[in-house]
């Protein structure tokens, strides 16, 4: 599941989660979200996480 928020200035990913880790489902969902960002005319997507969430940091950096 990927949840997001859209306002006039930006498109922001709020959360991403998969019940089946290592299946690349979240990666595929983020790719679809990125395609939606482009179709809506946004040039980028914003995503924020904390420095201590190493699993998320590693995933998003890929």
TrEMBL record:
It comes from the Bacteria. This is GNAT family N-acetyltransferase.
């Amino acid at each position: 599941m990927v949840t997001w928020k859209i306002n006039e200035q930006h498109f922001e990913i709020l959360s991403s989660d998969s019940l089946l880790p290592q299946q690349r489902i979240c990666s595929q969902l983020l790719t679809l979200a990125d395609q939606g960002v482009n179709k809506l005319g946004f040039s980028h997507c914003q995503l924020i996480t904390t420095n201590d969430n190493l699993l998320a940091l590693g995933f998003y950096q890929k």
